Automatic annotation (TrEMBL):
Pfam families: RVT_1 (PF00078). GO terms for molecular function: RNA-directed DNA polymerase activity. The keyword Signal does not apply. This is Probable RNA-directed DNA polymerase from transposon BS. It comes from Caerostris extrusa. Keywords: Nucleotidyltransferase, RNA-directed DNA polymerase, Transferase.
Amino acid sequence: MNPQSNVLAIDDEQARTNIEAANMLAKQFEKTCKLMFSADGRSQYKTYKSIIKNNKRTTEACNFISDLTLEDLDSAIHRLDPNKSPGPDVIFGQMITHFGENAKKAYRAKHSTVDQLFYLSQSIINVIQEKPHRKTVAVFLDLSAAFDRVWRQKLIHIIHRTGIKGNALLWINDFLRGRKFSVRYNGARSKSHRLWAGVPQGSVLRPLLFLIYMNTIHPHIHSDTRIACYAYDIAIWYTHRDITTSQKALNVTLKNIAIWAKDLKLSINANKTNYCVFSTDRKHRSAFNLDIKINDSPIKRIEFPTYLGITMDPKLRFTRNIEYTANKALRRLSILRKPCGTTWESRPKTVKNAFFSIIRPLLEYAAPIWNPSSQSSKMDSIQHRASKIIIGAVSSKIKTRLDRNVAYPSRKQTQPCHHKIY
């Protein structure tokens, strides 16, 4: 969007009205989701048709007396015994437990991004503490529009291989196909377009189907290469004393990942993919310029990679992450000052709830990873400032008493809870 002329421009096209802009954005999204097929892709489509046809034959004899409602389905799922044999749909009660590898935690109950961050950072710290310590080279991959480029026929094939067959497979196939979309821009709505790829947005099944699709990456990883994977945020790393050995192993893995991505019609953005060398070796760390490639494109080296919202550094001291988080939280403190003014005169409870909604989550996100840092006192200082804003104090010498008046625990009190979990 050009702010001076208020004209939306994509490539060489320009839109001067809202309806033109909506149609242009819809065409752009359709172009992003469009997949190109070769002879192998057409062969895969024949396999998909065969799978659907065979499953229809096996389920023709199954007749339901009445329609199944969502309440009936929810009740049946809660009554499932994980140790029982499967029914006509051939879905075991234990199957959902075995969908993901240990390194695959996205969207699973009681697993968050912190699991993957802890797995990655602890692996690096363990190596750094060795004497003589080894060096870790980590590559952070960027997948472009991964959710919107899921090849549906391939997904059905993968689901069939996991053991989901019969009515369940046919239902998922009907759930995915025949979908359309439109774009709304400033109240104007575009024409409807056919959605040929991707998993439906806003549905409960969207993350689960995507995980099944992405979980096929693990057989393509080098035996000594580790992987942390949360949805489409992928980090792979290799540890060795000789950094050239790490380079060779990572290039082998990246070559396999490129083949895997091509087979699944996923696009790896080489420009946004980067690597970092984690080491305490000051003399040679600046000279670690490796020849690491993905799809024959060189990957750039950076000092401060960001993975799942946490900025890392070669020594894993997290100073840059704490500085960035503190600055972001300080900017949000101004939101607390507005309700406390003479115009709104909000009650302390309202301001306190706002603090817990927009600032405290910033201070506690992935705290088990960076909490031991000596600079974490910056976060405590921000909470102290927020306490003064909430109760209207001008100054206070005793921070603990001030936090007690606000009636919420300090960050030091919550640290033992974090470390018990991890």
